[in-house]
Amino acid sequence: MTDSVLARVAQGDARAVHECIDQFGSLIWSIARRLTRTRADAEDAVQEIFTDVWRSAGRFDPAQGSEKVFVATIARRRLIDRMRRASHQARTESTDDIDSLGWADPGNSAEVCAEASAAARAVMQLRPEQRQVLELGILQGLSHSEIADVLQMPLGTVKTMMRRGLIQVREIMGVQNAASDGVR
Prior knowledge:
Blueprint: H1 5-10, H2 14-35, H3 39-56, H4 67-92, H5 98-101, H6 110-124, H7 128-139, H8 144-151, H9 155-173
Helix pairs in contact: 2-3, 2-4, 3-4, 4-8, 6-9, 7-9, 8-9
Domain RNA polymerase sigma factor 70 region 4 type: 120-166
Family: Belongs to the sigma-70 factor family. ECF subfamily.
Keywords: Sigma factor, Transcription, Transcription regulation
């Protein structure tokens, strides 16, 4: 067997497709799980990635790198595209209506709801890019690195904006500064 798995996939070899899944399935799954929020999202992403791998198999050039790097690059690009689409959809939703943000849970006690509403109003006073970083991190549960990928910002910038945004929210709400109460 002199041809690579990807070369045989490009030639339409059905057995090579199964070999491709066996050889790269765990790699693609691990990348997808790290860069998606839920298992279902990862499963959808893996299907899309394998479809892209099979479509792109003819472009694989062993002189440019290994099959593993080729497949990992396709996986990473597809996942970044998915994150950008999700970010774009999130940005198109209105952030003007505080109730739609979901900061306050109506099922909680009145005091907790009042505090959550006050926090939401404080967040709305932040610069738009700071507000977006906080919303992606707090409401959508994205990690700093995921936020950096989605917003195409350096990781350090995201971390700084998150920290400064939280400090500003505390100041607006009149809550003691995080540094003075031992939280960093």
